[in-house]
Amino acid sequence: MKSVNGNAKLILFSLLMAVCLWFISCKSTDTNVSETENTIQEEVDALAADTEEEQSEEIAAEEVAEEPVEEAPQLTVEEERALKKATLTREQRLFYSIKYTYDYEVIGEDLDYKITVDHDAKTVTLQYEETDSEEDWKNNYLFFPWPLKLDNKVIWTTYGYAKIYKSSQNIPINQFCELLEQYPDYQSVILGWSLGSAMAKITARHYIIRSPKGTKIDQLTTYGDVKCWYNPFFSLKKNCVRIREYVNNNDMITWCIPFCRRDVKCRVGDYLNLGKLKNSEYYHTHYEDCDFTRWGDVSAEEMNNQSKVKESNSAITEEESEVNS
Fold first, then answer.
1. What is d(CA 322, CA 182) in angstroms, rounded to the nearest whole number?
2. In what order do the strands lie in the sheet with 266-268?
3. At what angle do helices 90-99 and 300-324 cross, to 10 degrees?
4. In this structure, are residues 148 and 230 in contact, taking their beta carbons and an 8 Å threshold?
5. 3-state helix, strand, coil in the chain (%, to 5)
């Protein structure tokens, strides 16, 4: 009997323990499920917040994109060149002006020239362009000696250069002299580039021949200078206040006509380099990149200062005139 009662108590105790364990297990399971549900809900809320933020950013980006963007004003080619020219030195600026002049007068054997009068600087300028046609190249190759009569005097140059200059029928030199007579206190300036350098020097000789003894050219400047004199006994140096014949060592055009001579030789640019000679055309067409300091060049700032001084002096002169009147 005792054994039966003992077994009954054991079974009852086991059932009670099983119920307790089941209850605890259910409670733990409910807690885990609740925690899992909370975690999922938090992730859903965070994802929704991120989505709203991304949508807000996209809307803001679209609004910004819709706003008109102010583009930097595009400069014309002429404006870009004018801007660059303002930063160049005096000698660089002279070449740049010859290079980008397009309204040349064309006469005779394709001779391109232009005459300008600058009343502010008080100058009369005659300039000649470079080789720009097949006719010019043909005349460049005709380099055997030839006499050219300038008024009452004969000079010796190449047949090609004599042919071109003679074809002009003295029109450029006549116009140049007339303007200098009209403005006697203005400076005489003659410029040339490449083939134009030969025309500039022949014109300079012509001007000296027909002018009174002692007349001087205020400025004779040539770029990519070519030799054009066969006469070894005459030089323009004594007839010019300032003469510059610029050559670049890597510009092969300036080597041409080895039998002729030039009055002065003003070297600019890099030292002779066989590798750079392959790109000789570049050096012949970019004298605005050369350093002319050793030849008395002045910077753009100095030119502007000189211009201001001239304007100031001009204003003072005008005031004095008004007071005297």
1. 25
2. 105-107, 111-118, 123-128, 187-193, 219-223, 243-248, 266-268
3. 90
4. no
5. 55, 15, 30
Buried b (16+ CB within 10 A) or exposed e, 280-314: beebbbebbebebeebebeeeeeeeeeeeeeeeee
- 110 with 136: CB under 8 angstroms? yes
Q: Is the pTM of this model over 0.70?
A: yes
Angle at 217 between CA 100 and CA 239, to 5 degrees: 130
Tell me which residue of 204, 194, 262 sits closest to 228, measured CA to CA.
262
Which of 274, 126, 133, 265 has the alpha carbon at shortest distance from 204? 126
d(CA 58, CA 145): 80
Q: Can you give the pLDDT of all 325 residues of the chain as single tens digits?
A: 444 455 666 666 566 665 455 444 444 444 444 444 555 566 556 655 666 666 666 655 555 455 555 666 788 888 888 888 899 999 999 999 999 999 999 999 999 999 999 999 999 999 999 998 899 999 999 999 999 999 989 999 999 999 999 999 999 999 999 999 999 999 999 999 999 999 999 999 999 999 999 999 999 999 999 999 998 888 999 999 999 999 999 999 999 888 899 999 999 998 999 889 889 999 999 999 999 999 999 987 776 676 655 655 555 555 555 556 5
What are the residues whose beta carbons fall under 8 Å from the beta carbon of 11, sequence distance 6 or more?
A: none
Whether the Cβ atoms of residue 114 and residue 105 lie closer than 8 Å to each other: yes
Paired with 126 in beta bridges are: 115, 190
